[in-house]
Amino acid sequence: MDFEARKVIEALRSGVPSRAIGGYFGSARMDLLAGIADWLNEQTAGGKILTASYGEGKTHLLNTVFGMARSKNMAVSFVSLSRETPFNNLYQTYQKIALNTYLPNREQAGFDDLLDKLDQGKMAELQLYAAKELQTDKLYYLAKAYCNTDDPEAKFSLLADMQGDFIGNTQLKKIYKDIFAEKIAFSVNFVKSRHTWDYILFLNKLFIISGLSGWIILFDEAEHIGRLGRKSRFGAYSNMAKFLNGDNHGPYSLFTMTSNYAMQVIDGKSEREHLANAEGVDKEMIEYALVRIETATELPPLDRHEFQEAINKIVEFHARAYDWKPSSDIGELCEMAWSCGYYLRTKIRAAIEYLDQFFQYGDAGVVVAGELEQETYNEEIPLPDEL
């Protein structure tokens, strides 16, 4: 049994995006991917936004870019925005970013050994950057303490802080004093709700001086921003602008969101009318993010040729996964799948169902995509105290 092929087919069958698929199905939308490759080669950071309808391959594209960036010797982070990862609170998002960061040629996430590998000159460069270029100098003391202690408990706490589990200023002062017998006097006291961007810049600098070609953060399902309250949405837009604006000297970033976001949220919730009357927000940054969303690149649908190539790949993987030689007409399979449903994801699953039927029974019969059903809820469910 070809377990790699089986894994690919099962991921496609379930409709759950998989990083393994991105490595094998990167031939579609070649013009768009070539543009992204050129952007990564330019060494000018900043961000892009891609939009598409549900089920049209946004997450699949991010997985393809994931593999592309790692092949270019870049660090890659993959984060799905959600209720548990609200983008208005950058300190919560940063923890997910740090814990889902992958270095080239490594299967496990993490960057904890990069600091240990820096020579004295590069460590001095990193510490100088942290002391002079960031809003606070907390990371200067943090990095200096980390590289000068052999206490495993202190080292663990300092590393956890760099990964987003922030330690208090008082605790850092104590660790630093235990190592150097000196007291810390912060130039600006670190506050996670205001200064987490320092950690993004610090990590980006660490990757660059460690010899990597850069760092890209892939943000999936950014339409979750629209589910936040108005004040929180404005905070999320401000954070998005930081990633999108190349003048901030941060990492590369790529956001995906649904194509109707501008209509349903920016227009539907009258974002600009409320922004005009809002107080205590950076209106310029928020407007910048709104314009970037409205002018985002829409993911083009697969044309017939690209779809045919994808189906050919699926047939190849299905044959390897189940050790058989499909005798079905590939042209008939493509026509059937192309006509099944509206979403690309549905078409792909229909093709696999067709192959499953042929594999098991020697005939696919008729494969159709039904309409989505709306779930109904029984209002007669008794309350817990009635049971």
Shape: globular
Largest sheet features: 6 strands, mixed
Q: Can you give the mean pLDDT?
A: 88
The spatial strand order of the largest sheet comes to 3-2-4-5-1-6
What do you see in this structure?
The N and C termini lie far apart (50 Å). 53% of the residues lie in helices and 8% in strands. Residues 372-387 have low confidence and may be disordered. β4 (214-220), α13 (230-244) and β5 form a beta-alpha-beta unit. By secondary structure, it is α/β, with parallel strands linked by helices. α7 (120-132) packs antiparallel against α12 (197-209), α8 (138-146) packs antiparallel against α9 and α18 (330-338) packs across α19 (344-361).
Summarize the structure.
With 387 residues, this protein is of the alpha/beta class.
Please describe the structure with a list of short key phrases separated by commas or semicolons:
387 residues; alpha/beta; single chain; disordered C terminus; 6-stranded mixed β-sheet
